[in-house]
Task: inverse folding
């Protein structure tokens, strides 16, 4: 998870989507399993639509 966060942060900053001094991630993260397509779709919808992006 930490390596994924590091690579994603680097890509976001390189693309100009995240300021160099901005905090990108919360501590740790969700590690629950997604067992079927419905669970995956729900997780994607939450990630794309239910986040507070106005921080």
Result:
């Amino acid at each position: 998870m930490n390596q994924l966060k590091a690579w994603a942060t680097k890509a976001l900053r390189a693309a100009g989507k995240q300021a160099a001094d901005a905090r990108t991630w919360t501590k740790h993260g969700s590690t629950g399993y997604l067992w079927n397509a419905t669970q995956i779709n729900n997780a994607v919808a939450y990630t794309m639509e239910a986040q507070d992006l106005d921080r």
Notes: The two ends are 23 Å apart (CA to CA). The mean pLDDT is 88. The CA atoms of residues 44 and 50 lie 10 Å apart.
